[in-house]
Design goal:
This protein is mainly α. The protein has one domain. Helix content is 80%, strand content 0%. The protein has 7 helices and no strands. Helix 3 packs across helix 4. The longest helix is centred in the middle third of the chain and has 23 residues.
Length: 123
C-alpha cells in the first residue's frame, strides 16, 4: 500500500496539485519520505485530503473518473498508516482510533464549508 502511495506521489503530482489545497499537498508530499516502519498519515491531514477531493469533485477541476482514480493511492496510504497504527491494538483501542477520526471530520467541517462556499462566491 505504501509503495503505491509513494509511486503515485510522483506519477500523480499534477492531478494532486489540481485537487489539493497547496498546504495539504505540501503535507502529503512530506509523508513520502517517512520510514515505512513508522509511516503515519495523520487524521487531520486525511480529513483535509478528503474534503479537498470532495470540493475538487464538485468543481469538476478534472474529469471525475480521473480524480477518483487519483484518490485511491491516497486512500491506500491512509489505510497503510491505519494498519501500522493498529497492528498491535485491541478492539477497544481500534474503536477509539476510529472515533477520534470521526471527531476529526466533525472538528474540521469548517474547512470543508469554507472551501465549498469559496467556489460558490466566485460563481
Amino acid at each position: 500500500m505504501l509503495g503505491i502511495f509513494r509511486q503515485a506521489a510522483r506519477d500523480l503530482e499534477e492531478i494532486w496539485q489540481a485537487a489539493l489545497a497547496p498546504a495539504t499537498l505540501a503535507e502529503v508530499e512530506q509523508l513520502v519520505g517517512q520510514d515505512p516502519g513508522s509511516f503515519a498519515f495523520p487524521d487531520e491531514l486525511w480529513v483535509r485530503v478528503v474534503w479537498d477531493f470532495a470540493v475538487a469533485y464538485k468543481r469538476r477541476v478534472l474529469p471525475q473518473e480521473a480524480l477518483l482514480r487519483s484518490f485511491v493511492p491516497l486512500y491506500l496510504g491512509r489505510t497503510g498508516s491505519f494498519v501500522l497504527r493498529t497492528a498491535e491494538a485491541g478492539a477497544e483501542e481500534v474503536e477509539t482510533i476510529i472515533q477520534d477520526l470521526a471527531e476529526s471530520f466533525l472538528r474540521d467541517k469548517g474547512y470543508l464549508l469554507q472551501r465549498w462556499s469559496a467556489k460558490a462566491a466566485e460563481a
